[in-house]
Design a protein that fits this description.
The protein is of the alpha/beta class. It is built from 10 helices and 12 strands. The strands form 3 sheets. It has a 7-stranded mixed sheet, sandwiched between helices. A 3-stranded antiparallel sheet has the order 6-7-10, covered by helices on one side. Strands 8-9 form a two-stranded antiparallel ribbon. Helix 3 runs antiparallel to helix 9 and helix 4 runs parallel beside helix 5.
Length: 321
């Protein structure tokens, strides 16, 4: 595909967010744009790193307690996974729940279809309906799934990427997608010592750095950017006031570049904020879910209380007393 066709094919939402975000007083690009095909592959590599505790910890909780999830949610559910990625943890849940259908939802279409095909080979009798979409908004599920009872699945502490206001909006959108009476199984990372947190987001092998810098490669490839990627470095810092790890791309020298003929300049030390990963205490997590209309039914953690897997139920709207 030549340059002109690539630019014409670029996602307009990606273009809008990049151009507006880099021109903002505090430059930032929403974290969802980290996940093109290459970004999704790099993130899967991150989940296998020794420093990255969330994936293996959540997997162990899921393996230990997925039978309880199935018992509480009951039979006949369609499992709807938000931000399915490689669906690496999904087989654990599917084997326990024995759903009547599976709907993986992801913004990276090519990666989504490959993952759905691999899962279909593992579960040949299970109807799988992949949906390429931005799950930040309510989604019209496939007609075959709409009348079924539903169990939403949102693992990986992805909810932590969002500030509280946006996280509540997302949880409300999930409730609208799934409907009253649906279940949601969600992973949330706990607050813990700063050393463990920063190592998880700035690994010794540099995979997270490559993941973060891949955003600049994507901007160059899809939006005709002229960003000198080597002029930026990955930074991960703990923001105690906001209870979150922040990922930034920091200019290591004064740098100028263009994106679709729009000029940008960054002084050495200036950053582009690319991702947050908020960490939650016991009450914080419950309050977040409650604000969006989800009532917590059961919660499981590991022996060190590093990570929580929470099962919540979509409650009907009601007036406060």
């Amino acid at each position: 595909m030549d340059v002109a066709r690539k630019l014409a094919a670029a996602d307009p939402a990606f273009r809008r967010d990049v151009l507006a975000g880099l021109a903002a007083p505090i430059p930032a690009v929403p974290a969802r744009w980290l996940y093109d095909r290459r970004g999704s592959e790099l993130f899967e590599a991150i989940t296998d790193l020794p420093e990255y505790y969330p994936t293996r910890t959540e997997r162990a909780i899921l393996e230990r307690h997925s039978g309880e999830v199935a018992a509480i949610a009951g039979p006949g559910n369609a499992v709807v996974e938000f931000g399915s990625g490689s669906s690496a943890k999904t087989p654990i849940l599917l084997r326990a729940v024995a759903p009547v259908a599976y709907v993986p939802i992801d913004i990276s279409g090519e990666f989504l279809r490959d993952s759905a095909d691999a899962l279909q080979a593992e579960f040949p009798g299970l109807p799988i309906h992949p949906v390429e979409a931005d799950f930040m908004r309510p989604i019209a599920l496939p007609p075959e799934v709409r009348p079924l009872p539903k169990l939403g699945f949102f693992p990986g502490s992805t909810i932590g990427n969002l500030v509280a206001r946006t996280a509540v909006d997302l949880l409300r959108a999930m409730k609208d997608t799934l409907g009253d009476g649906a279940w949601l199984l969600i992973g949330m990372d706990r607050i813990k010592d700063v050393g463990t947190l920063t190592r998880a987001y700035d690994d010794a092998a540099g995979v997270t750095a490559e993941f973060n810098l891949n955003l600049l490669h994507r901007i160059n490839a899809e939006l005709g950017g002229t960003i000198p990627v080597e002029a930026f470095r990955h930074r991960a810092v703990w923001n105690d006031r906001m209870s979150r790890i922040e990922m930034h791309l920091e200019a290591v020298r004064d740098v100028e570049f263009t994106i679709e003929d729009q000029a940008f300049a960054f002084k050495a030390g200036a950053t582009i904020h690319t991702e947050n990963s908020h960490k939650y205490g016991f009450r914080d997590a419950r309050l977040l879910l409650r604000a969006a209309g989800w009532g917590v039914v059961k919660e499981w953690t590991d022996e060190n209380d590093q990570f929580a897997l929470i099962l919540a139920e979509a409650e009907p709207p009601r007036f406060a007393p």
